[in-house]
């Protein structure tokens, strides 16, 4: 059995009134609540299931600036600063560790891509703004302890890190509850009420909470939720899969990604491993409604996408999990958001764990 999501006790007792209601109890929702509360704003978080129960507990766990879309690079750098002091500030354990993240280049073309990104990143934030560096083939292999093949090189950022997805969002939520914030679970929000054109309340399955503002942090459910309010959010979902191994002795400490596989070491000594740039897109009516808006994203990701009708996809992955977005290497084109749903195994794979690293040894 792999790591389980840390429990946040259920609470259905609604506050009469708050300044802001956050819809969604993933990492985005609880982080939003945290920093609103730090500004003296009263907040309630409403989660239809349990805290961190979807994509927020199934992602890679990477906290990185490397290979971000340059439009979000400064935000990613600031986010890392918050991660580094979060545990001490709240007295919690999110599992964050500044392990460094490596992108290995299988060939000279991939290495040139890393060099190009780094040059543009330095131009944007300055050499002191990011500590990424290009690595040689031998240093790249050394950072990927146990690799028996060589690489053309890579890009390594020592200040990048990783956190434990099963711990992070629940740890923040429990800390906020200890400070008096209402973390309501299970508590689905059914609608938003307005008065005179302004938000006045949210209607939940357990009653109404009066408020002045609403933050929707619903991950892959955002388009559906917003659509019920007459708001059209351009959003499509794709499905990716990860696997978890049992603990492995002597494996690499640095999180890394090649053109085919990405991995990180967990606190329990096992690894979370994923196909680096491969996703399954379900063809649904929204795929055609939003086709023109997503055409740039389709062009830039076409080689990494598989397509299936929703019915076929559901048959392949009958037990799936919905969730919030994952960040991947992206172009600098302006694209609508693609939200990812990721399926995670509930225990070690049936094959030998060492086989999981086979792409690194071929």
Structure description:
The chain has 362 residues and is α/β, with parallel strands linked by helices. The chain has 2 domains: 20-59 and 167-227, FAD/NAD(P)-binding domain (3-Layer(bba) Sandwich), CATH 3.50.50; 62-90 and 99-162 and 235-360, D-Amino Acid Oxidase, Chain A, domain 2, CATH 3.30.9. Helix content is 27%, strand content 25%. It is built from 9 helices and 19 strands. Strand 14 (255-257) and strand 15 (261-265) form a beta hairpin. The longest helix has 18 residues, at 73-90. The protein is globular and about 60 Å long. The model is unreliable at 312-362 (pLDDT under 50).
Contiguous low-pLDDT stretches (5 residues minimum) are: 312-362
Quaternary status: single chain
CATH architecture of the largest domain: 2-Layer Sandwich
What portion of the residues fall into strands of 2 or more residues? 25-35%
Named CATH topology of the largest domain: D-Amino Acid Oxidase, Chain A, domain 2
Using DSSP, what is the number of strands?
19
Annotation field: number of helices: 9
What gross morphology would you assign? globular
Q: H/E order of the elements?
A: EHEEHEHEHEEHEEEEEHEEEEEHHEHE
Output the radius of gyration. Answer: 21 Å
| Helix/sheet category | alpha/beta
Name the CATH class of the largest domain: Alpha Beta
Topology (SSEs and partners):
Elements lengths: L19 E4 L3 H11 L5 E4 L15 E2 L9 H18 L10 E5 L2 H18 L7 E3 L1 H7 L9 E5 L3 E2 L2 H14 L3 E3 L4 E7 L2 E7 L2 E4 L2 E4 L5 H6 L7 E10 L10 E3 L3 E5 L5 E5 L3 E5 L1 H5 L1 H11 L3 E5 H7 L20 E8 L18
Parallel strand pairs: 1-2, 1-12, 2-8, 4-14, 13-19, 17-18
Antiparallel strand pairs: 3-7, 4-6, 5-6, 9-10, 10-11, 13-16, 13-17, 14-15, 15-16
Helix pairs in contact: 1-5
């Amino acid at each position: 059995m792999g790591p389980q999501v840390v429990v946040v006790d259920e609470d259905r007792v609604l506050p009469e009134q708050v300044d802001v209601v956050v819809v969604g109890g993933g990492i985005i929702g609880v982080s939003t609540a945290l920093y609103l509360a730090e500004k003296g704003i009263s907040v309630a978080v409403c989660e239809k299931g349990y805290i961190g129960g979807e994509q927020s507990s199934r992602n890679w766990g990477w906290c990185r600036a490397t290979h971000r879309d340059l439009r979000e690079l400064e935000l990613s750098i600031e986010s890392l600063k918050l991660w580094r002091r979060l545990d001490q500030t709240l007295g919690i354990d999110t599992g964050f560790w500044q392990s460094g993240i490596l992108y290995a280049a299988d060939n000279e073309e991939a290495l040139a891509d890393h060099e190009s990104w780094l040059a543009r990143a330095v131009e944007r934030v300055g050499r002191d703004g990011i500590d990424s560096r290009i690595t040689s083939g031998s240093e790249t292999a050394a950072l990927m302890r146990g690799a028996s093949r060589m690489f053309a090189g890579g890009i390594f950022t020592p200040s990048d890190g990783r956190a434990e997805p099963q711990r992070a969002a629940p740890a923040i939520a429990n800390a906020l509850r200890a400070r008096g914030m209402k973390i309501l679970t299970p508590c689905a929000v059914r609608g938003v009420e307005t008065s005179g054109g302004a938000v006045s309340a949210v209607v939940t399955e357990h009653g109404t909470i009066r408020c002045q503002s609403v933050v929707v942090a619903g991950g892959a459910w955002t388009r559906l939720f917003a659509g019920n309010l007459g708001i059209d959010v351009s959003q499509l979902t794709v499905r990716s899969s990860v696997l978890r191994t049992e603990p492995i002795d002597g494996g690499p400490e640095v999180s890394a990604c090649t053109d085919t596989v990405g991995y990180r070491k967990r606190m329990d000594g096992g690894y979370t491993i994923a196909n680096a740039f491969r996703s399954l897109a379900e063809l649904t009516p929204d795929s055609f409604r939003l086709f023109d808006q997503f055409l740039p994203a389709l062009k830039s990701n076409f080689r990494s996408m598989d397509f299936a009708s929703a019915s076929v996809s559901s048959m392949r992955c009958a037990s799936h999990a919905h969730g919030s977005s994952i960040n991947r290497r992206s172009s600098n084109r302006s694209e609508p958001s693609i939200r990812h749903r990721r399926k995670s195994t509930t225990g070690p794979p049936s094959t030998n764990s060492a086989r999981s690293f086979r792409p690194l040894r071929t």
